[in-house]
Design brief:
about 280 residues; alpha/beta; eight-stranded parallel barrel; binds zinc ion
């Protein structure tokens, strides 16, 4: 069923878990992630956002994700990831998304506050919750760039975070605490800063760029109030490796369906394993 409201986050927090939020670009990924929710029996979130629309088209991908959520036997959130366009945000809210992220983290602070507050007004009118972001993440959402761990000046400041949450009314806050988009083998979380952030704000925290982070650090982050963990690169890697392995077998018969199925099953397994790891120590 399609998720409604922030209970998906607060229930996870209360259970000592974080919700797995997975980026989707195509049919097989949407199916695989929804299936991982069913095989784990836990809620999941489909990230169908701006950079994913660049591949699949907004209406098509949104329709796919919403339909998969409605048909699932477990709770599935459909979330607009990293949106910087309030018209797009409004479109997704009206299309029936369960949550949206407005990402003003690359803008000057006062602009981030003003535009995120506007996003909150639009979304709350429709009962949709909002994630904001403060502090900028290195790396790229769609490809692994090898960017290093976040420099200290891009990390989220706890005092500013309290001000940001109070003035915008966001329901969840994405933080930069050393996490990076894409695989970054040398990335480590600043757990002390995360603890300070937890003390400074009451809303659930969100961790982007979890691919490749040490499992122990992710679990400790969940113990410190992270209720949603975004994963993308890990699923892309699982998808590509499975398809590479399957390709020689399917080529003689032009069996594309078998190739797509292999990719889908690899994504499901990867998402399933990730969901299982998202528990506090
Ligand atoms: Zn992200």
């Amino acid at each position: 069923m399609l998720s409604r409201g922030t209970a998906i986050l607060t229930d996870a927090l209360a259970a000592g878990r974080a919700v797995g939020a997975f980026a989707t670009y195509n049919l097989e990924q949407v199916q695989a992630i929804a299936a991982a929710g069913e095989t784990t029996g836990l809620p999941v979130m489909l990230l169908a956002g701006s950079s994913h629309f660049n591949h699949a088209g907004r209406r098509l991908l949104a329709t796919l994700a919403l339909t998969a959520a409605q048909e699932s036997t477990t709770e599935v959130g459909v979330h607009l990831d990293h949106c910087r366009d309030l018209d797009e945000l409004r479109w997704c809210v009206e299309a029936g998304y369960s949550s949206v992220m407005y990402d003003g983290s690359h803008d000057p602070y006062e602009d981030n506050v003003a535009r995120t507050a506007e996003a909150v007004r639009i979304a709350h009118d429709h009962g949709v919750w909002v994630e904001g972001e403060l502090g900028a993440l290195a790396g790229d959402e769609d490809v692994t760039t090898g960017a290093g761990s976040g420099a200290p000046d891009t990390m989220t400041d706890p005092v500013q975070a309290a001000d940001f949450v109070a003035r915008t009314g966001v329901d969840a806050l994405a933080v930069a605490v050393g996490n990076v988009h894409g695989f970054a083998p040398d990335a480590h979380l600043d757990l002390e800063r995360l603890a300070d952030l937890r003390a400074a704000v009451t809303v659930p925290l969100v961790l982007h760029g979890a691919s490749g982070l040490p499992e122990k650090e992710i679990r400790e982050a969940i113990g410190l109030g992270v209720a949603k963990v975004n994963v993308n690169a890990e699923l892309r890697r699982a998808y590509l490796h499975a398809m590479t392995e399957e390709l020689p077998t399917v080529l003689p018969a032009d069996d594309a369906v078998r190739l797509w199925r292999a990719g889908r099953e690899a994504v499901r397994r990867s998402a399933h394993d990730t969901i299982g790891q998202l528990v506090r120590p």
